[in-house]
User: Which sequence fits this backbone?
């Protein structure tokens, strides 16, 4: 908690009376606890009227997922046999991938440069406690005690400890509380104290619905997808880039968000399907838990993969893209114009349709102004490809692969080439810089909710 | 007894007043060792700013020590216990002139010696060189609560889908006069790079050019320096200074990575 | 020229008594309790009303400061005592938006509800008629209205705490668009509107007072009281009142413009095309095409002279108190008076130094820089003259004197640190860092607040007819002096390390990661500083009831207020007044006592 980092400052402080107290004084904050998802419970009258069952539900969730201060997954025997432990979900993924592991280590060596330098110089007591890494500090103290008489061993293992650091769920929960909780809420319900003042609202993880993935079929996101959101932020929303934290910390946060989402979805399933005669028995609970986790494990299979190089954009392909874009659905086109408008400015006729103007979380939503060159999910051609291919989960933006279109009097379904044509056309629309305040004139301030 | 109490009071008060210049100067001399001093300076014009700071520091320290010392001495020396009356004077015209003229001269020196540094940073933008106000290296977008930069595409356009957009990590070449264009999406922010000795408010409704030349490779904090809302404290960025050829390679790699398929 | 007899009920064509009119207390009909102590037109009662109300607001502003210091020492932990009051939803942990509210309210309360009322409201009201020899202010009913106009301002600021979205959160400087666009900050809902209304009421209250002060000083001085025989307290108060009169209307106008932006979507300060929280204010009906810098110019045009309002009366009081307790005339009376006028005059042309980084034309920055550098000169002259006053003196280390000496010592620090900020290139680095915070807290807290304590200790006997305890006063001084320096001095170094203002948790930046221990030290000093004020509270209220009774002139001072009974009755003076010389005849060599009051001919 306290960084008595600078020894001389601490000495100065200790020389005067009160700060001696201050250095030893470690105030804390009340531990967060997971509350039940009340709106979902209220929807099931049997459960809503039965506090005993609700307590059972809370107990079941705690059995599966631990508490907000000490979260952890219950590791099912069949997983363990297959070599999978959700408590090390991200860690196994990262450490088994060469590229990810290398960049993790590089990032750790930068973040903990001071600590590693101190260890390599043998100044083991001059190692400063890093912020937001209580587990690492605990492991270091243990190692120091264990190897108190083996300087060489302490040196090599100490450096390895810092360089290969991957946060535990506990440490990630602490970081989440520090950085994310005030928007996303303790259970990840997007209902923290600041959330009421934000537009769009922070994501509610509990339904397991995420907008920006590289996957089709409304699949749960991959580890890399969530990592990307943390690293890049989502421009034009209140979600900033969190690159000021290390890669390890971001990976850890992904693990914790995954836990929150799985917990939330399990809770929704259990609450929705609760029946008084069946009750909340272990088999029931386990079935739903396994179901949700398997959906997440299956994510990588749904990747919209693309082999080879991005095709070249030609004027013909752009023209074809324009035709698909601007032709409404009833005339056999891809119908983009109904939402995005003729010029792609997000002013199509659907903005007047209330059904088309709300997302799955009940919030107002508007189509993106494509002339700005702002793409919340990623701006690479492959990202646009995936977005048009799979749509945006939870919003009126539909999946386009396999959509029925009519060309030259013939009906057919959209292919990947068609989607690339749309991609090229959309990219050609980006003739303005992102909306910023201007002094008079300019493109004006239009920017609806967007996706 | 009363005399002793009064003497004690005089001593205590004198020591308290004496502590002001003594501790005041001591904490400044030790500040660097405690990590409470300027971060290293790595820009071409930062040196003139630091020099000006030190000039003023010296003048201020001399004045500070001198006036506080006089105060301490007078408070200790001129006690009510002296049975004679105070020196009965309403002032000294000559003294007034002296202690008006000398500070005036010193202040004029301070005023004149700082003009060049100011015009250098805020008014003398590079005219020749790879980056100018019309063709900046990048556009900086400040918003609640994120720093994002856009490098132009290979043709030098800041619009179009091939623009490179990077959040948080702002990479610039070393030893090059870099110009950037500062914009704000919503409210006031401020682009503050302590190691460059650079600060400029980002004003919504204005596009403000900013220039600097970084002299050392490394990674330096970018901090928002104007209250912009509840997230002001975490509106961070990092400026990475790369040697010129590494920078060119980096930008080329970024352009290529746009067309990656992973 | 003197009046031989004062008519019992003189003709009052303007409602003002002619100079030198003497009233006797039994002349007036007996007033009930409410007319005597609540809705009173007696300047002394009004002065005390400002004093008590101001001290309560000081406590409130101080609690905000404690909350800020807790967060900076132990970010995101449960704050004791205040935590659950301010942040019940998070179990007493400061929220990010709550922090922005804390420093906004701290600054607003301290400037508009503490220092200005305590300096000008309390002592302006109490001292002016007494020191110039007048029976009351020129416009007693306007005076009363001025105090009671303050209360709606207090009500509005207290209401803003409870507004939806919380209190105003755009800083006491309230820069648009953060303050004008509702979506930009939670506090920019009704909280900000209450803030603007509050400032309007406070401004009107101040202007009423200022009109009164200037008129009274110009028109109602006793016979023989020329301008250059006025105590420097009066000079300070008069010049501050002139500053109020000329600068406040600009703030009031700007506040209305901002209110119009917020309530009527006027668009004075709203640029075209802002997107906040994904909505363009224009789609919600706001006019645009405005400029945020316009607010900054208007705001600082008032707020810079305001800082001289915060300090000039204090300088005046310190001059008087030093002279009395050092038994020596003020050194360089005329230079002192002219310096105050110079500071005020120059103070009107330096407002842009708050805006060096704002994006205004850099050439304009050079102009403001020159004027700002010049303003250091009269302040320096004043410091030298105070030192000259102490040289060769016979110093009585009373509580009042201790605080007055401390003012000089601390003002030196505050004034000198200002030179770095005046220097525009250096300001590039230090603008919005903790050096600025150190600078203004040294001049306003370590300066003006010390002067306010000095003035309270010095004039308490006159106000209440009893002495305050010197022992408690010395204890109060020693602890306050030590802890306040502990709080604010190291902020200079923190600012040099680059620590930004108004940041709820700076420690995630590599640049600031190691600054937490020193911030903890500062916070503990701050908690001790607040706790230590108990010595003052006990002394102040206890002495009112049990203090040793004193006569008219316990300090053996020269100025006119010491001619009256302690406390003075209605009408103040119970005998004819004529003034023969200035108020600083102390240590006069051949005089029978070591001072010659103003109403006594100087020993030739």
Assistant:
């Amino acid at each position: 908690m306290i960084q008595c980092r600078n020894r001389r400052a601490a000495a100065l402080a200790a020389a005067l009376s009160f700060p001696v107290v201050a250095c030893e004084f470690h105030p804390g904050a009340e531990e967060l606890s997971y509350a039940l998802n009340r709106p979902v419970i209220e929807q099931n009258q049997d459960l809503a009227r039965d506090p005993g069952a609700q307590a059972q539900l809370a107990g079941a969730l705690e059995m599966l997922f631990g508490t907000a201060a000490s979260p952890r997954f219950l590791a099912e025997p069949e997983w363990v046999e297959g070599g999978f432990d959700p408590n090390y979900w991200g860690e196994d993924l990262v450490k088994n991938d060469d590229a990810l592991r290398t960049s993790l280590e590089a990032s750790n060596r930068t973040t903990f440069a001071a600590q590693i330098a101190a260890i390599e110089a043998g100044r083991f007591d001059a190692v400063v406690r890093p912020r937001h890494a209580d587990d690492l500090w605990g492991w270091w103290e243990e190692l120091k005690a264990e190897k108190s008489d083996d300087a060489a061993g302490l040196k090599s293992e100490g450096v390895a400890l810092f360089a290969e650091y991957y946060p535990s769920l506990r440490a990630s929960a602490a970081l989440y509380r520090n950085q994310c909780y005030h928007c996303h809420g303790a259970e990840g319900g997007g209902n923290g104290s600041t959330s009421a003042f934000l537009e769009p609202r922070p994501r509610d993880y509990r339904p397991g619905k995420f907008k920006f993935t590289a996957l089709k079929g409304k699949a749960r996101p991959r580890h890399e997808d969530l990592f990307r959101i943390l690293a890049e932020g989502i421009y034009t929303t209140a979600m900033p880039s969190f690159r000021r934290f290390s890669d390890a910390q971001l990976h850890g946060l992904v693990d914790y968000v995954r836990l929150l989402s799985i917990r939330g979805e399990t809770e929704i399933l259990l609450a929705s399907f609760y029946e008084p005669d069946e009750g909340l028995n272990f088999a029931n609970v386990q079935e739903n838990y396994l179901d949700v986790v398997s959906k997440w494990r299956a994510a990588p299979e749904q990747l919209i993969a693309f082999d080879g190089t991005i095709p070249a954009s030609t004027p013909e392909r752009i023209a074809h893209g324009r035709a698909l874009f601007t032709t409404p659905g009833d005339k056999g086109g891809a119908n983009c114009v109904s939402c995005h408008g003729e010029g792609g400015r997000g002013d199509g006729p659907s903005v007047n349709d209330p059904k088309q103007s709300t997302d799955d979380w009940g919030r107002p939503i508007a189509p993106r102004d494509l002339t700005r060159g702002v793409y919340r999910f990623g701006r690479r051609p492959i990202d646009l490809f995936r977005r048009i291919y799979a749509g945006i989960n939870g919003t009126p933006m539909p999946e386009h692969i396999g959509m029925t279109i009519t060309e030259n009097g013939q009906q057919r379904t959209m292919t990947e080439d068609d989607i690339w044509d749309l991609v090229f056309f959309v990219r050609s629309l980006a003739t303005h810089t992102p909306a910023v305040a201007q002094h008079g004139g300019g493109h004006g301030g239009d920017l609806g909710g967007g996706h | 007894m009363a005399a002793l109490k009064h003497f004690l009071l005089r001593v205590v008060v004198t020591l308290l007043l004496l502590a002001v210049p003594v501790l005041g100067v001591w904490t400044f001399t030790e500040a660097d060792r405690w990590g409470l001093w300027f971060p290293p300076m790595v820009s071409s014009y930062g040196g003139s700013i630091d020099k000006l700071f030190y000039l003023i520091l010296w003048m201020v320290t001399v004045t500070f020590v001198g006036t506080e010392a006089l105060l301490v001495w007078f408070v200790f020396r001129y006690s009510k216990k002296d049975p004679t009356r105070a020196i009965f004077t309403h002032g000294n015209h000559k003294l007034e002139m002296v202690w008006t003229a000398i500070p005036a001269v010193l202040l004029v020196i301070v005023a004149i010696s700082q003009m060049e540094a100011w015009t250098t940073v805020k008014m003398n933008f590079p005219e020749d060189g790879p980056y100018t106000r019309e063709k900046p290296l990048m556009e900086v977008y400040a918003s609640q609560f994120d720093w994002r930069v856009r490098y132009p595409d290979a043709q030098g356009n800041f619009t179009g889908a091939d623009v490179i957009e990077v959040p948080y990590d702002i990479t610039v070449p070393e030893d090059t006069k870099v110009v950037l264009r500062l914009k704000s999406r919503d409210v006031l922010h401020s682009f503050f790079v302590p190691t460059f000795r650079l600060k400029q408010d980002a004003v919504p409704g204005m596009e403000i050019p900013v220039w600097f030349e970084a002299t050392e490779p490394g990674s330096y904090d970018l901090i928002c320096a104007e209250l912009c809302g509840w997230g002001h404290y975490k509106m961070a960025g990092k400026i990475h200074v790369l040697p010129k050829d590494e920078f060119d390679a980096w930008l080329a790699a970024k352009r290529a990575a746009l067309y990656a398929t992973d | 020229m003197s009046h031989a007899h004062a008519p019992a009920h003189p003709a009052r064509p303007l409602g003002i008594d002619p100079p030198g009119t003497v009233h006797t207390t039994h002349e007036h009909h007996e007033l009930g309790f409410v007319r005597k102590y609540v809705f009173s037109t007696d300047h002394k009662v009004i002065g005390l009303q400002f004093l008590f109300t101001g001290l309560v607001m000081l406590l409130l502003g101080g609690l905000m400061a404690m909350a800020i210091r807790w967060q900076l020492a132990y970010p995101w932990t449960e704050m004791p005592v205040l935590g659950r009051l301010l942040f019940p939803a998070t179990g007493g942990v400061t929220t990010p938006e709550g922090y922005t509210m804390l420093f906004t309210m701290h600054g607003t309360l301290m400037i508009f509800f503490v220092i200005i009322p305590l300096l000008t409201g309390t002592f302006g009201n109490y001292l002016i008629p007494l020191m110039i020899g007048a029976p009351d202010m020129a416009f007693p009913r306007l005076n009363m209205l001025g105090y009671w106009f303050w209360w709606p301002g207090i009500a509005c600021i207290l209401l803003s705490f409870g507004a939806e979205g919380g209190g105003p959160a755009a800083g006491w400087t309230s820069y648009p668009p953060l303050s004008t666009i509702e979506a930009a900050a939670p506090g920019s809902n009704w909280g900000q509107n209450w803030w603007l209304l509050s400032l309007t009421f406070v401004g009107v209250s101040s202007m009423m007072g200022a009109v009164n002060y200037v008129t009274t000083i110009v028109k109602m001085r006793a016979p023989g009281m020329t301008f250059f025989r006025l105590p420097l307290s009066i000079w300070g108060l008069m010049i501050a009142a002139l500053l109020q009169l000329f600068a406040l209307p600009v703030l009031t106008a700007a506040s209305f413009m901002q209110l119009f932006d917020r309530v009527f979507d006027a668009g004075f300060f709203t640029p075209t095309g802002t997107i906040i929280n994904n909505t363009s204010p224009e789609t919600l009906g706001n006019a645009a095409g405005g400029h945020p810098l316009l607010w900054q110019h208007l705001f600082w045009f008032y707020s810079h002279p305001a800082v001289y309002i915060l300090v000039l009366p204090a300088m005046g009081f310190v001059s008087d108190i030093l002279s009395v307790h050092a038994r020596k005339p003020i050194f360089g009376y005329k230079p002192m008076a002219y310096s105050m006028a110079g500071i005020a005059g120059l103070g009107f042309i330096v407002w842009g130094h708050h805006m060096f980084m704002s994006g205004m034309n850099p050439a304009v920055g050079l102009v403001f820089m020159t004027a700002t550098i010049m303003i250091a000169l009269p302040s320096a002259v004043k410091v030298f003259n105070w030192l000259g006053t102490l040289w060769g003196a016979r110093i009585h280390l009373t509580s009042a004197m201790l605080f007055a000496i401390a003012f000089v010592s601390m003002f030196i620090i505050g004034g000198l640190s200002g030179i770095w900020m005046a220097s525009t290139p250096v300001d590039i680095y230090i603008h919005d860092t903790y050096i600025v915070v150190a600078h203004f807290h040294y001049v306003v807290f370590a300066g003006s607040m010390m002067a306010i304590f000095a003035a309270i200790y010095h004039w308490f006997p006159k106000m209440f007819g009893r002495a305050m305890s010197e022992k408690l006063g010395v204890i109060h001084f020693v602890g306050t002096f030590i802890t306040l320096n502990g709080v604010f001095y190291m902020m200079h170094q923190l600012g040099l390390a680059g620590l930004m203002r108004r940041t709820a948790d700076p420690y995630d930046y590599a640049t600031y990661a190691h600054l937490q221990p020193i911030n903890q030290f500062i916070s503990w000093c701050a908690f001790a500083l607040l706790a230590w004020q108990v010595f003052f509270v006990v002394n102040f209220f206890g002495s009112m009831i049990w203090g040793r009774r004193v006569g008219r002139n316990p300090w053996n001072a020269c100025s006119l207020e010491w001619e009256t009974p302690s406390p003075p009755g209605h009408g103040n003076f119970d005998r004819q007044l004529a003034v023969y010389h200035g108020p600083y005849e102390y240590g006069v060599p051949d005089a029978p006592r070591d001072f010659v009051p103003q109403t006594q001919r100087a020993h030739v």
User: Anything to note?
Assistant: Chain C touches chain A through 49 residues (CB under 8 Å). Chain C has one domain: 43-272+304-563. The CA atoms of residues 180 and 243 of chain C lie 27 Å apart. Residues 96-132 of chain C form the longest helix (37 residues).
